[in-house]
Design a protein that fits this description.
187 residues; alpha/beta; 6 helices; 37% helix; globular
Length: 187
């Protein structure tokens, strides 16, 4: 993948987000907070054209970090992680994905984290977007409880609501985002 390819992927992804994922109007977010717009990134992270771009852009965002697996709290993190897994495979590299359940299963192996084992591995926690930081923080905690070393938290879009500062302060890891509110035309 060349620099031009990643720049083109980033530009096209931003265009798709602006076209398909931004919904204007009063909404209540999962955090309970109200906003005048909603950035529905599942409209792009599950879109046949945009999902591969998510993987390219998020891998570019975190290319200086070392990690063997990527994942986070279900559901927002799942398509981001799998997009990154597929982008790595397309580049001839290996990257595993994992899913953090909101609660442990009461049956089967009763695991909170699904996928290849992350015990003893460096992992990246991802999210589509976060308002309070609660979902990535829960994923960081679960990954650490499972014996993983969390290297950072990365999200597609930052809502500029202080989540990054909270994640850095409470989890002690770096927070990164691919697109700011300004880039999305929301600030």
């Amino acid at each position: 993948m060349t620099v031009t390819d990643t720049a083109a992927a980033r530009a096209r992804l931003l265009e798709i987000i602006r076209e398909k994922a931004i919904v204007h109007g009063r909404v209540t977010l999962s955090s309970g907070k109200e906003a005048d717009y909603y950035v529905d990134l599942r409209r792009i992270s599950l879109d046949g054209e945009a999902a591969p771009l998510v993987g390219i852009v998020m891998r570019e965002l975190t290319k200086d970090l070392t990690y063997a697996a990527v994942g986070g709290l279900t559901l927002g993190a799942d398509p981001v992680a799998t997009s990154m897994l597929h982008a790595a495979a397309a580049a001839g590299e290996r990257l595993d994905a994992f899913v953090v359940r909101k609660a442990g299963k009461a049956h089967g192996l009763q695991q909170r984290i699904e996928g290849p084992s992350i015990t003893g591995r460096q992992v990246l926690v991802v999210e589509d977007t976060t308002t309070t930081g609660a979902s990535p923080l829960a994923a960081v905690e679960a990954a650490r409880e499972d014996g993983a070393e969390v290297v950072a938290v990365a999200t597609i879009a930052d809502r500029a609501t202080g989540a990054g500062d909270r994640i850095t302060a409470e989890a002690g890891v770096e927070y990164r985002y691919a697109f700011s509110l300004e880039e999305l035309g929301l600030a």
